[in-house]
Design a protein that fits this description.
- The chain has 109 residues and is mainly alpha-helical.
- It folds into two domains: 45 residues; 35 residues.
- The chain has three helices and three strands.
- A three-stranded antiparallel beta sheet has the order 1-3-2.
- Helix 1 packs across helix 2.
- The longest helix has 30 residues.
- The chain is elongated.
Length: 109
């Protein structure tokens, strides 16, 4: 392969975008590429003309989840152990309610 031809992975690294974004640019005709077998090769010189700026932000803005349960990292250290113990106790209680009969049948004497 010639040095000026690169794959989609290398093109993505150079452009600072994902491989999927490179494929989308190829499909839209924004990036000229040649298909060889199952792979695309791109002339490195074509990357200079590519705009990596798109309409969507580079990083998706995620909605802040509703706070339903305190996380261990947000509570005071002395309360953290108590919280974890309570969570474990609740989980064991739920398991016993749901699977108690099966667990009793498996009990080895």
């Amino acid at each position: 392969m010639k040095k000026h031809l690169i794959g989609t992975t290398e093109a993505a690294r150079i452009l600072g975008i994902s491989r999927i974004a490179v494929f989308k640019k190829i499909q839209k005709g924004q990036l000229e590429a040649t298909k060889i077998g199952r792979n695309y090769v791109i002339d490195r010189r074509n990357l200079e003309n590519i705009s990596v700026r798109s309409d969507t932000p580079k990083h998706k803005v995620l909605k802040k989840p509703e706070r339903t349960v305190e996380t261990v990292s947000t509570i005071k250290p002395d309360r953290a152990k108590t919280k974890v113990k309570k969570d474990v106790k609740d989980a064991v209680g739920r398991a016993m309610r749901e699977f108690g009969d099966a667990l009793k049948k498996m009990e080895v004497e």
